[in-house]
Amino acid sequence: MKVWSLKRTKNYGSKHHDEHELTIRSVKLSEDKKTITLDIPDLAPTWCYELKIGDRVLHGTIHELK
User: What pTM, to 2 d.p., does this model score?
Assistant: First the structure.
């Protein structure tokens, strides 16, 4: 998993700023096999993340952690 910030400008998009990888300490699959829980100690709110799972790639934003 990696995270980064973007520079807000009037133009769409920017280069990645402060891009860095996060360590996934553990992965747990629920008994009903519908939920995966990731233990990522340094995870924090971020504008952009990329999580690769096998040949799949997820992109998103994390606004808040609970």
Answer: 0.81
Burial of 3 (0-12, 13-18, 19+ CB in 10 A): buried
Give the residues across from 52 on adjacent strands.
57
- Residue 41 CA neighbour count, 13 Å, CB half: 3
H/E run at residue 49: strand 46-53
44 CB contacts (<8 Å, ≥6 apart)?
A: 62, 65
CA–CA gap between residue 29 and residue 16 (Å, rounded):
32
Q: Are 18 and 4 in contact (CB under 8 A)?
A: yes
Closest by CA to 63, choosing from 48, 42, 41, is 48
pLDDT, tens only, 29-56: 999 999 999 999 999 999 999 999 999 9
